[in-house]
Amino acid sequence: MSTVNPFKAPLIANKPEHLTTNWAQAVVNHHANSDIKNIKIQRLEIMSVDVGTTTRVRLKVDHNCSASLPKRWFVKLPSLSLRARTITALPRLLPTEIRFYKELASVMPLNKPQVIAAHSQFGKGSTLVINDVTELDAVPGQVGDALSAEQARLVVECLARCHAHFIHKVQRDPGFLWLAGPIRRLEDHLGTALAVPLMKRGLALSGDVIPSRLHKPALNYARNRKAIMRFLSTGTPTLLHHDCHPGNLFWHNDEPGFLDWQMVRLGEAVSDISYFLATSLNPEIRRKNEMDLLARYHNIMVANSRLTTTFPQLLNRYRAHLVYPFEAMVLTLAVGGMMRVDSNIKMIGRAAQAIQDHDTFAILSGFA
Fold first, then answer.
1. Are the C-beta atoms of 241 and 261 separated by less than 8 Å?
2. How many other CB atoms sit within 10 Å of the CB of residue 168?
3. How far apart are CA 15 and CA 76, in angstroms?
4. Does pTM surpass 0.85?
5. Model confidence over 62-80: pLDDT tens digits?
6. Which CATH architecture best describes the domain 6-133?
7. Is the CATH code 3.90.1200 the one for domain 139-367?
């Protein structure tokens, strides 16, 4: 008898109240793993609901025991926030993450959650079910956490190995082309169309956390975003997380794992490093360790990917790509409802200091 693909299960649930014992039983009944298919769900309890770019629900699931099926599930549904749901609908962020887990997670050389089930159907919704990493005594990161230099080193090394692993594969394998397809282009067009009004609103809401001297060049960047993004897209592509901040990490036995793959795409490797260092380190820690971390990243890339970029070239690209974490955090604040405001403000402050330290807007001024 053939097994049923877990990614084709009729398990779409668009609201937390749809997550019932019967729904959970349907998940296991349609799973490809024969051990899981024989499990009977006895009880389901919603432990927490958190609303941001998606609605994230933690479940406690009692069943008749199997080591192959976790008893704590983490479920991602469309956001209950109308504003967040509207801004994430066109770029199809949750369906993108579901496709990542279906097609790419198994070959990703990073620690990541176990997928239990995932399904997306246009017009009906999307549901992703992964294991809750806390069941394995892992510690989820929190948005706005400030990482230590040692934690940053571990993340940078993981990203370097991942980038090196994919940097040639993505150019040869047509299975990666969807990561640069119409949905990503639509997201870029949407970002450009909304850049100026959202930047104005974000600057106003940020108060004095963004130095006033950055306001004019930030708006100038927004007005010329299309040309600048074209310049930032000229590097050799690899597979990017593209949203690597502390809230999208977890820690297990002091090793980092990576969560939230809804922004996954193809792009220049060092852009992930710019995003991570700008959002994850307090300015004094970043300034003290930045060059060592970049040198470590460059060494791993050279050793594992035949990268010919020199360190000065990589540093220049790193400085230019710092504009994106700044923009992403400011626009997140402008849209609202996607992240805790206090944590958002912390990361805006860190990113603003990074672009100021590296004079990023001056580097990009030639595209204005």
1. yes
2. 13
3. 10
4. yes
5. 998 777 899 999 999 999 9
6. 2-Layer Sandwich (3.30)
7. yes
